[in-house]
Amino acid sequence: MNPTVIILFLLIVLSTLVVTYYAAKRTKTTSEFYTAGGGLTGWQNGLAIAGDYLSAASFLGIAGAIALTGFDGFFFSLGYLVAYLVVLFIVAEPLRNLGKYTLADMINSRFDAKKVRGVAAISTITIVIFYMIAQLVGAGALIQLLFNIDYWVAVLIVGVMMTIYVLFGGMTATSWVQIIKAVLLMAATVVISFIVLSKFNFNISTMFSEMKTATPLGEDYLNPGVKYKVPLDTLSLMTALVLGTAGLPHILMRFFTVRDAKTARSSVMWATWIVGVFYILTIFLGFGAAAFVGSDTIVAANSAGNMAAPLLAEVLGGDFLMSFISAVAFATILAVVAGLVLSGASAFAHDIYGQIIKKGKVTEKQQMYAAKYASVGVAILSILIALFAQNMNVAFLVSLAFCIAGSANLPVIIYTIYWKRFNTAGAVTAMLSGLISALVLVSMSPSVFSPVEGAAIFVGDPIFPLTNPAIVSVPLGFLGGLVGTVLSGKKDLTRFAEVKFRANTGFRKETK
Amino acid sequence: MGEGRHHDGKEKNKFEKVVESKEFKELMDRKKKFIVPLTIFFLVFYFALPILTSYTKILHQPAIGDITWVWIFALAQFIMTWTLVTIYMKKSAAFDMLAQKIVEEEVSKGGKEQ
Question: Is B1 on the interface with A (CB under 8 A)?
Answer without folding.
Answer: no
